[in-house]
Design brief:
A 6-stranded antiparallel beta sheet has the order 6-7-1-2-5-8, with no helix packed on it. It is built from no helices and 8 strands. With about 100 residues, it is mainly beta.
Length: about 100
């Protein structure tokens, strides 16, 4: 990864959900919802407070997270679609 997010930002690769329903129907691309689950590829150093102290992020590289549906900024790096999120856009970590 050649990107280093700044502050309280992180870079996430979306994890696509299954393409079939529970009953076995295959969903077309137009019916799929935007992914809300992803793998953290890189994290910033943390938010900088007014007194100069850094608050480290609660997520780390390699974590799987759930994030807001329309949060973040989509970018393309080396042909791969990635998402730059603020830590506040992360809703939860998925425990393994």
């Amino acid at each position: 990864m050649k990107l280093k997010p700044l502050g309280d930002r992180l870079i996430v690769r979306a994890i696509e959900e299954e393409e079939t329903t529970a009953s076995g129907l295959v969903l077309p691309d137009t019916a799929k919802e935007k992914p809300q689950k992803g793998e953290v590829l890189a994290v910033g150093d943390g938010k900088l407070e007014d007194d100069g102290k850094r608050i480290p992020l609660d997520v780390a590289t390699g974590d799987t997270v759930l994030y807001s549906k329309y949060g973040g900024t989509e970018i393309k790096v080396d042909g791969e679609d990635l998402l730059v999120l603020r830590e506040s856009d992360v809703l939860a970590k998925v425990e393994k």
